[in-house]
Amino acid sequence: MRAWCNGALIDPAQPALAALDHGVTVGDGVFEAVKVTDGQPFALTRHLRRLARSAAGLGLPAPDADLVRDGIAQVLAAEQLAFGRIRVTFTGGIGPLGSGRDQGAPSYLVVSTAASRSAATTKAVTVPWPRNERGALTGLKTTSYAENVMALAYAEERGGAEAIFANTRGNLCEGTGTNVFCVVDGTVVTPPLTSGCLAGITRELVLEWCDVIERDLTMDELAAADEVFLTSTTRDVQGLHELDDVTCPRSQPVTERVRACWRAQEPRDLDP
Q: Is this model's pTM higher than 0.90 or not?
């Protein structure tokens, strides 16, 4: 593991951010998780664009993309990762203990770590708390992740590795760190961004590379789908073998076609 903070490499086990950093005290920050393959970040330009969108949505200044790229380069030069991830965090910097914000310098943090490749399939659990598709943070990748921590713990207590949310309208939204795709009568369907789901980078590429329809899906449709798969930065395309203690079909031909498409397209361009 390697880390960089505000322009310099640091010991990842030692304190780096100020105790008054607004990202620490009130979660006033945004982040990106970027996959690393053979020491190189994947789809970095898309991730940096989303980091800027999240910062703008939260009312933070625009991150310095060149500074972030330099931090990533320094971290990866210090640790050769065959497979892993980078976490880029951008916060409001030092601020008051309350929700008000000072106009000081923002904070930058880059951390790299090795990761294990995901299994071909996993189990997911739907949770009883809805996503608010009209909330102030909807569509933003912020550091305010306590809701996801609770949901994932709920799923893990029931043997799952991911939690799936409905939205306040009762439609399918997303996972804690994934987008959800259903196969309905041979067609791949995923919720639109108006459902409240995050605009995942892997989701975005699957929509570009594969034949997918965006439309609202009820939770009943999720439960009855022929196949269900998840997408995320390090999962890529991962099928479900179980959803809420119901075993999914062993044969998942459509999911496998999407996975094969991903595997063929990804190596062609590290920054698609």
A: yes
- By CB atoms closer than 10 A (0-12, 13-18, 19+), residue 251 is exposed
List the pLDDT tens digit at each of the 272 positions of the chain.
Answer: 999 999 999 999 888 899 999 999 999 999 999 999 999 999 999 999 999 999 999 999 999 999 999 999 999 999 889 999 999 999 999 999 999 888 889 999 999 999 999 999 999 999 999 999 999 999 999 999 999 999 999 999 999 999 999 999 999 999 999 999 999 999 999 999 999 999 999 999 999 999 999 999 999 999 999 999 999 999 999 999 999 999 998 899 999 999 999 999 999 999 99
Report yes or no: 91 and 26 within 8 Å, Cβ to Cβ. Answer: no
Which pair of structure tokens corresponds to residue 78? Answer: 């210090």
Distance (Å) of CA 169 to CA 140, 150, 194, 198: 20, 21, 11, 17
Cα-Cα-Cα-Cα torsion 45, 47, 49, 54, nearest 10 degrees, comes to -170
Q: Max Cα separation, the chain? A: 55
